[in-house]
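S.,

As promised, the fe (ii) ion run. Input:
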Amino acid sequence: MMTEIRQVYFCTVCKHVVEVVYEGAATLVCCDKPMVRLESGTVDASKEKHVPVMEASAKGIKVKVGSAPHPMEEKHYIKFVEVMTDSKVCRAELKPGMVPEAEFCMGIADVKEVREYCNVHGLWKA
Ligand SMILES: [Fe+2]
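Predicted complex:
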């Protein structure tokens, strides 16, 4: 039986980002090279601007990136915020100029993991 993992991989050549829903045996390849698995928080950058912060909101939960707002400029911004429960994965896609936060319709107690992807500093989770 395959294990649900939701790992994120990155192509160092074309910058392609891929999320794995179920792990298989093969190596992911892009641009004729093995893709690199992104580990959260491994890039040397401001934790305050990258580690997502979750709070209860009128809709359910609001996730902010981070405790100090992350830049949302053309060359440096948060591409997505993702929230996982035991049975759901919800992703909010963000663009430059937007506020680095997202709301999700789910109970705060159901959330198992929150993560975000910065186009310069990679994957961060809380
Ligand atoms: Fe960043």
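Residues 8-38 form a domain with the Rubrerythrin, domain 2 fold (CATH 2.20.28). The pocket of fe (ii) ion is lined by residues 45, 50, 70, 76, 118, 120-121 (CB under 6 Å).

- D.
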